[in-house]
Amino acid sequence: MPGIGIIANPHSKLNKRSPEELKLLQDVLGQKGIFSLSQDLEHLDRIIHEYKDKHIDIIAINGGDGSISRAISRIISIYGKDPLPRLCVLGGGTMNLVAAQLGVRGRPHEILQRLLRDAEQPESMRHESLATLKIGEVYGFLYADQSSTAILEEFYHKKNGHVGATWLSVRIINSFLWRGPLIKRVIRAHRLDATFKPGGRLRSPALGAFAGTITKFPMGLQFLPLARQRPGHFQVTVVTCPPEKLLWYMPAIMLQQKEGPASGKHSFCCEQANLRYEGSVHFTVDGEIYVNPTGSLKIEAGPKLEFVCS
Q: Which of 88, 101, 202, 273 is the least crowded, having the fewest Cβ atoms under 10 Å away?
């Protein structure tokens, strides 16, 4: 049986709401692997160094998309040029988009039970590869900035899952129809000068940009359908419609799935994107929020990671 090490985030939504889930994970794992609670980034580094030194074959991550991004960022950095371990997503977050992309369902301890069962017959394990994005020292699967990040910050004020996301959508639509303060606060145009390799250049006011190597979005939306079509590439979509007309442009933005200019957006499949906004840029990678005061960002195609899907 391959060596299995678990990294669990005790601060994830499910673990805070149901702390018994952590105990279930430990009970299921028993003596068949190593269980570690990650308290902070420094502690996360120590855990990954330990797993590397012990030649752990599969690192299973319990937490949401942000926990996965933090873990893979440190794994890629710490392993350097050495072969990366296989990964397993145990879920436990708010949206769990990476788990949805991989087709992994169930509560964390149920996924772990299936992983341990599959590990007894390694030749029957189902694997799937996912390419990553690289933004500075951060690796992940889904990038978004400006207006979408402002909406995410609004959601994080009362972080309550799909119900909260739906209620926020209703509030935003209502504010749009009545030109209320919420829509003016979160949906704003930002001057963007962007270059894409390959793909050219875009200079335009933009509500924000999305980039990703996954196609699954919250509530089942397929917003980046080109994200996995070309090896070593990712999709970037820049929303360029006027902020006061976003609601009317939304059907076309969601339905027109092609490269190049379309109604209310421009889309590119590229290996690298260089974005320069006037002023600072607020962006998110897999739900974690960052701020770059210079307004300049480079998004690159990152390494491909191998996941065990149990």
A: 202
User: Which range has the top average pLDDT, 95-109, 145-159, 161-175?
Assistant: 95-109
Q: Write out the chain in H/E/C secondary structure.
A: CCCEEEEECCCCHHHHHCCHHHHHHHHHHCCCEEEEECCCHHHHHHHHHHHHHCCCCEEEEEECHHHHHHHHHHHHHHHCCCCCCEEEEEEECCCCHHHHHHCCCCCHHHHHHHHHHHHCCHHHCCEEEEEEEEECCEEECEEEECHHHHHHHHHHCCCCHHHHHHHHHHHHHHHHHCCCHHHHHHCCCEEEEEEEECCEEEEEEECEEEEECCCCCHHHCCCCCCCCCCCCCEEEEEECCCHHHHHHHHHHHHHCCCCEEECCEEEEEECEEEEEECCCEEEEECCEEEEECCCEEEEEEEEEEEEECC
What is this structure's pTM?
Answer: 0.93
